[in-house]
Amino acid sequence: MTATLDQPLRAALLTAEELAVLALLADGLPVDAVARRLNLSKRTVQRRIRRICDRLDVHAPIQAVVWAARRKLI
C-alpha cells in the first residue's frame, strides 16, 4: 500500500468486520476481549489488525483507530 493512496479509497478497502474490530479497539478492549466479543479466535483478530494496518499504511493499531475515528467510520 502506498502513502499516496487517497483516503476514500483506503476506507473502502476496510470490511465491516475490520471496522468492527477497530470500533472495539477504540473502546479500549484488548485483543482477547475483541476476539470473545466477536466470537473469533485471538489469532484471527490479530490477523485482521495486521491487515487493517497494511491497508491503511500505518504501523500500529492505535494509528488505524485514530484514522478511522477522524473519518467517522467508527
UniProtKB/TrEMBL annotation:
Keyword check for Ribonucleoprotein: no
Span of domain HTH luxR-type: 7-72
Gene3D superfamilies: Winged helix-like DNA-binding domain superfamily/Winged helix DNA-binding domain (1.10.10.10)
Keywords: DNA-binding, Transcription, Transcription regulation
Superkingdom, taxonomy of origin: Bacteria
A Pfam match: GerE
PANTHER family per record: DNA-BINDING TRANSCRIPTIONAL ACTIVATOR DEVR_DOSR
Protein's name in the database: LuxR C-terminal-related transcriptional regulator
Organism of provenance: Amycolatopsis thermalba
